Amino acid sequence: LTLGNPGKTHESLDPLAVLAAARGLAPYFTAVTVGSNRLAGDGSNAWVESPDSDQEYLIRSMPVTGLAAEVDKLLCQPRR
Questions:
Q1: Per-residue pLDDT for 5 more than 90?
Q2: Angle between helices 13-23 and 64-76 (to 10 degrees)
Q3: How many Å apart are CA 20 and CA 74, to the nearest integer?
Q4: Under DSSP, is residue 16 helix (H, G, I), strand (E, B) or coil?
Q5: Residue 47: predicted pLDDT
Q6: Predicted confidence band of residue 61 (pLDDT cuts 50, 70, 90)
Q7: pTM above 0.85, yes or no
Q8: Is 19 exposed, middle or buried (0-12, 13-18, 19+ CB in 10 A)?
């Protein structure tokens, strides 16, 4: 998941992953499905277009404040 700050850590990614799993991608995220994550020897990683794999990453489709509100609703007002 990219929040527009490449190279920064994002402790908020776990709740966002739960949002995507519980509610689906749209309208919150879009998925990039071509490529794979490459792990370097120093522990860094980067998305590369080749080779392609079954991996994907998510890009937000709404402002961070909107995603935060959706996570709050998910945690405080779950659907039955």
A1: no
A2: 70
A3: 11
A4: helix
A5: 92
A6: very high
A7: no
A8: buried
What the block records as the tokens of 70 is 């959706």
Which are the contacts of 60, defined by CB distance < 8 A and separation ≥ 6?
1, 2, 3, 4, 28, 29, 67
- Residue whose structure tokens are 């908020």: 12
Q: Six-digit token pair at 1?
A: 């998941």
- Which residues make beta-bridge pairs with 57? 32
Neighbouring residues of 1: CB distance < 8 A, sequence distance ≥ 6: 10, 13, 16, 17, 29, 57, 58, 59, 60
State what percent of residues in the chain have pLDDT above 70. 80
